[in-house]
Design goal:
Layout lengths: L4 E7 L9 E2 L4 H7 L7 E8 L2
Antiparallel strand pairs: 1-2, 1-3
């Protein structure tokens, strides 16, 4: 069984130009989706969805 989470994060890579605040999944997946280093994605908050 998989768990779902609500997250907020900020992209800090200066090369990404489509805004810098998002609500999606987890840092590693996000970094891969945006073709960034994981260190460029900062997880601001998260909570498990019920």
């Amino acid at each position: 069984m998989s768990a779902k989470y609500y997250t907020q994060f900020i992209l800090t890579d200066a090369q990404y130009r489509d805004g810098n605040e998002f609500c999606r999944d987890i840092e590693a997946i996000l970094a891969r989706n945006f073709d960034l280093q994981q260190s460029a994605v900062k997880l601001v908050s998260w909570s498990r969805l019920h």
